[in-house]
Design brief:
Layout (H helix, E strand, L loop, with lengths): L2 H14 L11 H8 L3 H14 L2 E4 L3 E4 L4 H25 L2 H13 L11 H19 L2 H17 L7 H19 L3 H21 L19
Antiparallel strand pairs: 1-2
């Protein structure tokens, strides 16, 4: 792996998992030493992060980790609804119904993993990631998939704004089962509507926990975005 790719991957993960919090200055000397790369590949990595919106170049401060706000949440979820509702509808028209029926059945049993004492978040996020992947493959639209990929990195970061409690995850599992069920039935309008309900509930949950700081990283699979 190229040094710039390695630096980019490390910084991206640190930003997504809140090891580098919003507003953190990504100083070239400090980050070069921390990541074990020279300043040229580090600058390439910072340029990629800036292009993705994960970092921002500020006059007089250099490059800093981008801020997140309630206004950003609304904008992200407006885009998320447009993309994910369309993707779910297309998946219902084009997808393998047996595959989505199997996912529906697995989501139906997922709440048993999400106990208040010891919720198995890792397993749940892995299952949600499978649903994302299945929808992407069913849609078979490289432009839509690329747009979703660009959005999901921000959504993975947004999850840290919310209190990731077991009760919300159990409800999300029910919502995911409804999405998978509608796709398995080939019902595009219902798949879109079920996705819209899930996204609205997710956004409301995140906003309701805005007074709580992000929890420390659990080193879980945070790439699944159906939170």
């Amino acid at each position: 792996m190229k040094a710039s790719d390695r630096a980019y991957a490390s910084l991206r993960e640190d930003i997504v998992e809140w090891r580098l919090a919003p507003g953190t200055v990504l100083g070239e000397v400090e980050q070069s030493e921390r990541l074990g790369v020279s300043r040229t590949p580090l600058r390439e990595a910072l340029a990629r992060l800036t292009a993705e919106g994960l970092a921002t170049a500020l006059r007089g401060r250099g490059v800093v980790v981008s801020e997140l706000s309630v206004a950003h949440l609304d904008e992200l979820f407006e885009l998320r609804e447009a993309l994910e509702c369309k993707a779910a509808a297309l998946a219902a028209q084009r997808g393998d119904r047996e595959r989505f029926a199997a996912l529906r059945d697995r989501f139906a049993t997922a709440p048993t993993l999400l106990t208040d004492e010891d919720p198995q978040r890792h397993e749940y996020y892995a299952l949600a990631a499978e649903l994302d992947a299945a929808i992407d493959e069913a849609v078979a639209n490289s432009f839509l998939s690329q747009a979703l990929d660009g959005l999901r990195v921000h959504l993975a970061r947004v999850r840290r704004l919310a209190k990731d409690d077991a009760a919300r995850l159990r409800q999300a599992a029910v919502e995911h089962a409804a999405i998978a069920s509608a796709i398995a039935d080939g019902n595009a309008p219902l798949a879109s509507a079920a996705t819209a309900v899930h996204l609205n509930n997710s956004l409301n949950h995140i906003k309701s926990t805005q007074n709580h700081p992000p929890s420390p990283p659990h080193h879980e699979n945070l790439e699944a975005t159906h939170g």
